[in-house]
Amino acid sequence: MSIADVFAKAKAENRSVLIGCMPAGFPTVEDSIASMIAMHEAGCDVIEVELPYSDPVMDGPVIQKASDIALAAGVRTRDTLKIIEAVARTGAPVVLMTYWNPIEKYGVNAFARDLAAAGATGMITPDLIPDEAAEWIAASDEHRIDRTFLVSPSSTDERIAMTVAQCRGFVYATALMGVTGARTSVSSQAPELVDRVRHADPHMPVGVGLGVGNGAQAAEVAGFADGVIVGSALIRSVLEAPDRATGLSRLRTLSAELAEGVRNPRN
Amino acid sequence: MSAPSLPDLAGHFGRYGGRFVPEALVRALDELDAAYRSAKTDPVFQAEFESLLVNYAGVPSLLYRAERLSAAVGAEILLKREDLNHTGAHKVRNVLGQALLAKRMGKPRVIAETGAGQHGVASATAAALLDLECVVYMGETDTERQALNVARMRMLGATVIPVTNGSRTLKDALNEALRDWVASVDSTHYLLGTAAGPHPFPEIVRDFVGGIGIEARAQCFELTGRLPDAVAACVGGGSNAIGIFHAFVPDESVELYGFEAGGDGVETGRHAASITGGSSGVLHGARTYVLQDDDGQTVESHSISAGLDYPGVGPEHAWLHDTGRATYEPVTDAEAMAAFHLLCRTEGIIPAIESAHALAGAARIAPRLRAELGRTPTIVVNLSGRGDKDVHTAGAYFGILDPVETIVPGEQE
C-alpha cells in the first residue's frame, strides 16, 4: 500500500496514521526485523526504518544509543535495505529515515533504485532540505519514492509552502524546537504548525513527530494531525528491557496503546 | 580565479559548502546571514571589531623574519605571529567577531564546541568581555585530557558540558552543540569555532580571521619589497589557513600550501587528513572532504595535535583543492614534532603542535621551491598558536617529563 493510500484509509476511518520508528540493525539485523514486524502487527500502520548514522544531529539520546549499538554490531547500508525488504514483504508499508551522507556515499540514484526494489515507499531526510535536494528529487521521481522533508515551528510560511510543494506522501512536522525523544507533554507549537502546513496545502497529509511517547499523547496529536510519529519511546522499550522477549512484549504493548490513541483523537 | 566572490548566495564553493541541516536551523542561519550582511557594511560594527582586535587582542600580529630557522631550512621564513595574540592563537579574531554579532542580534547566550579547549577558552573569553552567557560542549575524553583548559573556561565564567556520546571527542561535541542550538535558537548564537559547518559560517569565520592574510601580505611587502613565494598553514577545520590564504588567492605567483595532520601516516589509516586521505561527503552541515567508510559513516580521526584532530575540513579548502589553487599535503606526527623541536631551539618560540605542522611543511617545500625558482624562496608561515597548552604532550613525546632527580640539600658538594 502506498503512503497516500494509508493516509486515505485512516482518514476514512476518522483516525490518524501511526508511524513507528526503529533503527535498522538494532540490536542486531534479525532482532530489528522482529521488532518492526511486531510493531506492525500490534498497530503501527507504517514502519519507519532509521538508517543508523555516526553523527545523528536531529536525534536525542535514545536513538543515538540505539544507532551506536547497531553500528558497533557492524550494520551496513546494504543490511538496512535487506531489513526493509524483509519487513515490506510482510505487507507493512515501510519508509526510510536517513541522514544524507550515507545516501550520497552509496550514490543517490542507485540508492533510490535499490530502496524502491527493496519495497520501501518513501524516504524521510532530516538533514536534507529541498534547497540542496535537486539530485534526490530527480532520483526519487525516477524511482517513484515518496519524499518527506521536515517543517519546523521556526519555518517561515514561504519555506513551508516551498517544502510542502516538494513532498510527496506526507510532510514531517517537527512538533517542537529540539531533537527526538519522548517529552512529558505535547508541544503547544505543534497544532499551529499543522495549521500553517494545511494553509500551504490542504491536501498534503501531515505527520507530527518529536516528543510523543504514550497513548494519551498519541490521541492528543491525532486530534489535529494526520499522522503520529513515535520513535524514542518504542526504541526505549527494547533498549531498557532485560531480555529480547520482554523487549518484544513491551514493544507490542506500547504499539497497541499508541494505535488505540490514534483511533481516539482528542479534539 | 574568482575566489573573493565565493561563496554564492546559498553558500556554495563550487559543489562544496551549502546547508545540510535540519529545517529547524534554517531560520537561524538566515537570520545570521542577514545580520552578518548588514554588519559587514556597517562602519560602526567594523570599527568596533577593529578596535577590539587592536586594543584588546593585540592585532596586527608581527610578521617575524626567523633568521636561524631560515638558515636551518634553506628558505627565508617569515612567521605570522598569531601566537602572540591574546589567548595565544588566531581564534580570538573569530570569537570577537561572532560575539559582537551575537550582541547585534540580541542573543544573550552563546554556545561553542571545543576539542582541545582552545576555541572554548577563546569563546569564554569573548563572552566574559561582552557579558554573554557561555556554554561549551567538550568531548568527555577531551575534558580529561585537557583539564587545565576546562578550568580556564570555568574561571572565565563559562559552563563546560562534557559530551559522553559517540567517540566523546570534537565531532561529538559539535553534534551536541547543534542539538542544543536546534532547541535554543531564539536566545542563542552558535559560536562555531572554524571555517566549516553550514552557510554562512564558513564565510563569516573566513572574513573574521581574514585579517591574518591581509596583514601578512602588507607586512611581507614592507619587509621584503615583494610578495612571498609561498604561504603555509596547518589545516584541521581550516580557519587559520583560510585566514591567511584568502588575501593571497588572487596573487597567482604565490603558492598556497595547507598541511593536514598525517598522524601515523595517511597509509596507516590513523590520521586526520580529510583532503589527502578522505573523500567528498556531507558532515556537520556542509559538503566537503570527510574521513568516512564505504557506507558514509564518519571515521575517527587521529593526530598528536588535538586542534587538528577532526574528520572534516572547511568547504572552501575542498574547493581550493579541487581547483588546484591550493596544495594540501599531510604532515605526520613525527615530522610535526621535529619541526616543533627545531623552532624551540632555533628561535626560542614554543609553537602550538598544530602550527608545527605548517613549519614542517614549509621545511619540506623549501628545497622544491629553491630548485624551481633558482634562488632562496620566501615562505610566510602562519604560526597560528603558541605551545603552552602542548607542553605536556610534547614533554611526553620527547621523554623529558621523567621525574627530575631530587637534589637533597647538603648533598650537592
How is this structure best described in words?
The complex is a heterodimer of chains A (about 270) and B (about 425). By secondary structure, chain A is of the alpha/beta class. Chain A has a single domain (about 5-150, about 215-260), classed as Alpha-Beta Barrel (TIM Barrel), CATH 3.20.20.70. Chain A has twelve helices and nine strands. Chain A has helices at about 5-10, 30-40, 60-70, 75-90, 100-105, 110-120, 135-140, 155-165, 190-200, 215-220, 230-240, 245-260; strands at about 15-25, 45-50, 95, 120-125, 145-150, 150, 170-175, 205-210, 225-230. Chain A has a nine-stranded parallel beta sheet. In chain A, helix 10 packs parallel to helix 12. Chain A starts with a helix and ends in a 5-residue tail after the last helix. Chain B is about 45% helix and about 15% strand. Chain B is globular, with a radius of gyration of 20 Å. The model of chain B has no long low-confidence stretch (mean pLDDT about 95).
Question: What's the gist of this structure?
Answer:
Chain B: Keywords: Amino-acid biosynthesis, Aromatic amino acid biosynthesis, Lyase, Pyridoxal phosphate, Tryptophan biosynthesis. Chain A has twelve helices and nine strands.
